[in-house]
Every structure is written in structure tokens, then in C-alpha cells.
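Its record is quoted verbatim for completeness.
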Amino acid sequence: MSLLQVKNVQSAYQESQVLFGIDFSLKAGESMGLLGRNGMGKTTLIRSILGLKSIQGGQVLFDGQDVTHLTADKIARMGIAVVPEGRQVFPNLSVDEHLTAFLSNRHNSKTLWTPSRVYELFPRLAERKSNLGSQLSGGEQQMLAIGRALVTNPRLIILDEATEGLAPLIREEIWKCLRLLCNEGQTLIVVDKYVNRLVEIASHHLILERGQVAWTGSSEALRDDRQLWTRYLGV
């Protein structure tokens, strides 16, 4: 059974429709790349899944339960975590306070993510555990946003613009982290413009074009068809 099912989802901002019948499913342990040029509906789709944007039609199911009209906090407690675009860390909380405040294990995860384990994954955060969110670099904030999601021990993590604006060395640390999570069977949806890196970790991909599914397929198929990159991704 699919962990996440998105069925004919339609969404609009006032009179402007953004999503036109989006369909896809994701099984536990799978990782999906969500691709498309800017303004094609990726963030709106993520917000619709998370309960941050009401949808005008269709249905979202998580673990077989209809979450279409649930509030964002209830959906989060069911086991969906997000690493949002722009990181959105709390400027007045320390790194350690972030990780301690969000620590939970509602779904009896066998491989528990704790603050200590996050520090092993990102030693840079361990060095700055007493620093406030406002004192961190952009790359450190992204590591913290990922760590914050991990310590909730979620069943699904959605990363919106996973490596946007990061220095190359920091980007590599994030890709290393995502590869580790995939190998451990963490279910992921990753939005990122670096298609050549996404095809290395994701099991399959979905491309949005003007609020519709333009293409879906495996990493192998996407890697081998560079016309898709040009047509839909501007690469």
C-alpha cells in the first residue's frame, strides 16, 4: 500500500488556478524528485500535501487516511515533516534548543533520530550547538532545518529547495545526508534544481509543467533522456 497518495488535486489562489489534477503515489521507503521550472506549482503542491494550502478538488491520503481537510499540525503529527524553502529556523533558539524542542517518536521508529545522532551526521552543528539560529550561516541553518525534521522521527520528509543558495562544500554535505537517508529507507520528496544529483538518489521523479504532471518515471529514464531536461527543466 502507498504511504502517500495524491489524487486529482486541484488548487487555486483566488481566481488563479495553479494545480490541475495532480496524481501520484509514494510507497514507504521510496524517494521522489519533484521537478519543474520556477512557478510550475511545486511549492503549492507541497503546501497542499502539508495542509498549509486548502485544495479545491481531489484528495490526499496518508497511510490510507484522508488528510485532505486536516490542519497542518494534525498532518505533521501523523508523521510528515518538512524542510521548508528558506529554512525558517527560529532566530532566538539555540541549535540544541531546536533539536530538543522538536524531539519525538510518535511512530516507534526503530532507528531513532536524537540530537546526538544529528550531531554525528552534521559535526558542524555540534560545534555550534549553543549558537542561536540567527548566528548560523545559510548552510548551517539548512543542516539545522534537516536535523529539526529528523528528530521528529517522521515517516515522510519533504525538502523544498534542498540545496538552494548553498556553497558547493555545504551542498555536498546535504547530498551525502540525503543519500544516507535513502539507504536507510527514509521516505523522501526532494525539490532541487540539480537534476544530475537527484537522479543519483531518488527512485523516481515527477515533473510539473504549468500545474500539471508533464512526465513521471525512473531515475534511469530521466538520466537517459536529456530532451526532458531541456524541455521542462531548462538545463
Remarks:
- The chain is about 35% helix and 25% strand.
- The chain has a mean pLDDT of 94.
- The first helix runs from residue 42 to 50.
- The radius of gyration is 17 Å.
